[in-house]
Amino acid sequence: MNEPTFPPLMSGERVEGGIDPFEKACAMAALGCDAGRIVYDITADRLAAALVVAPEVPLEAAMAVLPACGIGFQNALGALGPPEVAVHLEWDGGIRVNGGACGRLRAMADTSDPRAEPSWLVIGLDVPLMQLAARPGDRPDQTALYEEGCADVDPVALLESWARHTLVWINRWEDAGARALQSEWRGLVDTIGEDVTRNGLTGTFLGVDENFGMLLRAGEATHLVPLSKVLEQKT
Predict the structure, then answer these.
(1) CATH number of the domain that 180 lies in?
(2) 157 within domain boundaries
(3) Is residue 198 in some structural domain?
(4) Is the pTM of this model over 0.70?
(5) Which of 15, 17, 69, 222 is the 20 to 30 Å CA partner of 180?
(6) What does the DSSP assignment read for 129-195?
(7) What is the pLDDT of residues 157-185, one digit of tens each?
């Protein structure tokens, strides 16, 4: 496998032997590694990677990096995959390809206080290339890239493209705020207007606030579910 080439301000580190890139990146971030480090593992059936960032804003605003990484993946697959492949994003980091669940984005930071500025924030990308443990049709709600017409997409090129497009969107967010990011993201989220359950609440997904917090209409009340609620807890 060719080693990926990343844009300036980013660097890569490959892991093997069943090491989870997300867990490795979180451990490295806690020890003070540079922002822009991408830890990755590419196997026959899966692409997994994690990006370390050091946002200089409070956590609630910094969570915009999660949808930025999602847009980056959509842009990357859109550039490399067949034009008929549709990629949609879920508010909590889920990725859907042609309507089927196809991996996810996840997040962890060194704080869970939405008002505190995190020393580090790690966003993980986990996308199945093929479903080795199940036959096509066994899990109709789940899919993999190769089953959706993307067998010719080189996973190394996809990782490189994800890094480039994600960097563009993070820079755009840092330079111009969340408005352009939200405009792009809303076009990729197909559950707005539908009933969803999040954080113990069930209601209509109305959209998001300026920090990508979910606005959930339940009865006569509108509730705000901060995006920081999707953060995984350190063990």
Answers:
(1) 3.30.930.10
(2) yes
(3) no
(4) yes
(5) 222
(6) S--SSS-TTSSTTB--GGGGT-TT--HHHHHHHHHHHHHHHHHHHHHH-HHHHHHHHHTT-TTTTSE
(7) 999 999 999 999 999 999 999 998 999 99
